C-alpha cells in the first residue's frame, strides 16, 4: 500500500471516528445534571429524585425550583432568570392575546416535550378547570427555551435543560405531577397594596392565599376549583366529592396552617440566584409608558411651566417667595 492509499485510509478512519462521536452525543432531554447541580443538591441535603415544585414571578422575571427533602418540607434549590415572557400583568383570557398565564397548574410526564421547536419544553396545562369555567381559551402555553415568547415563559436553552432534567429525575423518582404556581409578582402585602387598583386584584387575592400558605408552611397547599374560583387549604363539610369548577362550592371550612420552623442546629443553605438575561423589565417599561402617555397629552392639560416654555429650574412654581409663600401664589399676584 503506497503513501496515497495510506492517506486515504487514514481519512476514512478519521471520518468514521468523528461520525461515531457525533452519533454518541447525548440528546438534550437525556443529558444528566451537571456536576455543579449535583454538588448543590448534595450540599442542600436533596436527592435528584426528590419531588420538585416550581414558582414563576412575572414582574421579577424569575422561576424558582424547590425540592422536597426527607423532612417532608420543600426547600429552595435555585432561582432562574426568565429570559422572556409576553403580555402584561394579569391572567390569560383568550387564544391569541399573547398573555402568559397566571394561576395554579400541574405538569405530568406526558406534558414534557423533548422534541420542542424551542429546544425543550413542558406544557403548563392551561386552561385548567378554573380557566375553562371562566371561558378562557388557549393552548400550548409552555416553559421552554430559545428566549422567545408568544404567551409562554421562555428560558435560555442551557437553563431550560437543567430545569427539564430536574423534572425528569423527579418523575423517575416517583413523582406523578409537579405543581407550577404562576404569579404576577411576589405577593407581599406591599406589592398587593401597590396594585390594589388593578382589574385583576380580586383574582390575585385568590393567588395570594396559595403564595402565603407556602411561605408559611413550606408544603404544597391543596388547591380546589369551584364557584369559578380557587379554594386554597380547605375541607368540604360533607367530605370529598367531585367538583365542578363552574358550579357553586359546597360548604367548606378553612384549615389551620402549620408554620414551618427549621431545626435550631440547621445551617442556612445558600440562596442560589442564577445570573442571566431578562428581556422584560416592568419597572423600565412602566416608566417608558408613562413618558409616552405624558407626551401624548394635549398641550393645555400639561403643567403651566411646560406650556410657557420654561424649564423646571426656571419655573416659579418650584421656587418659594421671600415671604415663604409658594411662588405659585406670588406669580399670580
Describe the fold and architecture.
- With 333 residues, the chain is of the alpha+beta class.
- The chain folds into 2 domains: 28-286, L,D-transpeptidase catalytic domain-like, CATH 2.40.440.10; 303-332, no CATH class.
- The protein has helices at 3-23, 35-43, 129-133, 157-172, 189-194, 201-217, 282-295, 304-307, 327-332, and strands at residues 52-57, 62-68, 74-81, 84-85, 103-108, 112-113, 121-123, 142-144, 153-154, 177-183, 223-226, 229-232, 234-236, 252-254.
- β2 (62-68) and β3 (74-81) form a beta hairpin.
Order of helices and strands: HHEEEEEEEHEEHEHHEEEEHHH
> How do the strands of the widest beta sheet line up side by side?
3-2-1-10-5
Tally of individual helices: 9
What is the overall shape?
Answer: globular
CATH class type of the largest domain: Mainly Beta
N-to-C terminal Cα separation, in Å? Answer: 110 Å
Number of individual domains: 2
List the helices and strands and how they pair.
Layout: H1 3-23, H2 35-43, E1 52-57, E2 62-68, E3 74-81, E4 84-85, E5 103-108, E6 112-113, E7 121-123, H3 129-133, E8 142-144, E9 153-154, H4 157-172, E10 177-183, H5 189-194, H6 201-217, E11 223-226, E12 229-232, E13 234-236, E14 252-254, H7 282-295, H8 304-307, H9 327-332
Parallel strand pairs: 1-10, 8-9
Antiparallel strand pairs: 1-2, 2-3, 4-9, 5-10, 6-7, 7-8, 11-12, 13-14
Amino acid at each position: 500500500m503506497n503513501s496515497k492509499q495510506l492517506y486515504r485510509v487514514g481519512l476514512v478512519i478519521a471520518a468514521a471516528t468523528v461520525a461515531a462521536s457525533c452519533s454518541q452525543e447525548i440528546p438534550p432531554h437525556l443529558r444528566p445534571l451537571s456536576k455543579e447541580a449535583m454538588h448543590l443538591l448534595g450540599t442542600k441535603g436533596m436527592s435528584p429524585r426528590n419531588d420538585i415544585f416550581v414558582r414563576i414571578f412575572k414582574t421579577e422575571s424569575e422561576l424558582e425550583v424547590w425540592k422536597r427533602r426527607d423532612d417532608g418540607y420543600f426547600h429552595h434549590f435555585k432561582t432562574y432568570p426568565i429570559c422572556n415572557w409576553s403580555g402584561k400583568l394579569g391572567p390569560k383570557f383568550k387564544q391569541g392575546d399573547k398573555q402568559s398565564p397566571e394561576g395554579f397548574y400541574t405538569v405530568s410526564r406526558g406534558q414534557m416535550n423533548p422534541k420542542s421547536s424551542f429546544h425543550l419544553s413542558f406544557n403548563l396545562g392551561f386552561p385548567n378547570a378554573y380557566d375553562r369555567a371562566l371561558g378562557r381559551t388557549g393552548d400550548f402555553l409552555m416553559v421552554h427555551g430559545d428566549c422567545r415568547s408568544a404567551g409562554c415563559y421562555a428560558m435560555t436553552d442551557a437553563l431550560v435543560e437543567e430545569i427539564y432534567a430536574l423534572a425528569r429525575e423527579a418523575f423517575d423518582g416517583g413523582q406523578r405531577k409537579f405543581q407550577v404556581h404562576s404569579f404576577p409578582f411576589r405577593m407581599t402585602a406591599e406589592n398587593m397594596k401597590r396594585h390594589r387598583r388593578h382589574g385583576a386584584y380580586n383574582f390575585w387575592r385568590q393567588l395570594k392565599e396559595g403564595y402565603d400558605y407556602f411561605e408559611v408552611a413550606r408544603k404544597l397547599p391543596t388547591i380546589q376549583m369551584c364557584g369559578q374560583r380557587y379554594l386554597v387549604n380547605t375541607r368540604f363539610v360533607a367530605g370529598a366529592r367531585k367538583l365542578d369548577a363552574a358550579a357553586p362550592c359546597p360548604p367548606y371550612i378553612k384549615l389551620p396552617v402549620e408554620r414551618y420552623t427549621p431545626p435550631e442546629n440547621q445551617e442556612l443553605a445558600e440562596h442560589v440566584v442564577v445570573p442571566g438575561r431578562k428581556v422584560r423589565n416592568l419597572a423600565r417599561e412602566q416608566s417608558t409608558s408613562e413618558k409616552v402617555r405624558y407626551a401624548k397629552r394635549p398641550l393645555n392639560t400639561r403643567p403651566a411651566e411646560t406650556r410657557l416654555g420654561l424649564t423646571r429650574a426656571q419655573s416659579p412654581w418650584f421656587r418659594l417667595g421671600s415671604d415663604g409663600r409658594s411662588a405659585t401664589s406670588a406669580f399670580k399676584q
